[in-house]
Amino acid sequence: MSIFGGGGGGGGGMGGLLGNRQTANLLTRSTAVLAALFMLTSVSLAVLAGGHSSGGGSIVNETPGAPQSDGMTPVPTLPTTPTVPTTE
Predict the structure, then answer these.
(1) Are 16 and 6 contacting, i.e. CB atoms less than 8 angstroms apart?
(2) How many CA atoms lie within 13 A of 41 on its CB side?
(3) Are 19 and 12 spatial neighbours (Cβ–Cβ below 8 Å)?
(4) Whole-angstrom Cα distance, residue 49 to residue 37?
(5) How much is the pLDDT for 17?
(6) Which end of the chain has fewer CB atoms < 10 Å from its terminal CB, N or C?
(7) Residue 75 in contact with residue 67, Cβ under 8 Å?
(8) Does this model's pTM top 0.85?
(9) Alpha-carbon span 6 to 13, nearest angstrom
């Protein structure tokens, strides 16, 4: 006896409509179709995203925390000697 109430006689998981082998074939084919669709959409999204890249380089080559300056905004510099806060 199965969990879904179907007994013997080849009336498997899909409510007795398909046999065990037919159910396995249906699930295998639907999984393959869904995997192909997933890969197709992933590749197409990667191609679309690749066309709009401004720098054209990899983010691995960028230094983290580097200030992006357009020449108009001055970048603050750090003092050469550390300052100690005083209380007065």
Answers:
(1) yes
(2) 5
(3) yes
(4) 18
(5) 74
(6) C
(7) yes
(8) no
(9) 7
20, amino acid identity: N
Domain regions of the chain by residue span = 1-47
| Residue 37 to residues 11, 31, 33, 45, 49, Cα–Cα distance (Å) | 31, 10, 6, 12, 18
Instruction: Read off the amino acid at residue 82.
Output: P
HSE of 47 in the Cβ direction (CA atoms, 13 Å)?
Answer: 6
CA–CA separation, 7 and 5 (whole Å): 6
Cα 45 to the center of its chain, rounded Å: 11
Distance, in Å, from the CA atom of 22 to the CA atom of 16, rounded to the nearest integer, reads 11
In tens, the pLDDT along 19-61 reads 888 888 999 999 999 999 999 999 999 888 876 555 556 667 6
Rounded distance between C-alpha atoms, residue 45 and residue 51, angstroms: 10
- Give the pair of three-digit tokens for residue 39: 């890969």
How large is the C-alpha radius of gyration of the chain?
31
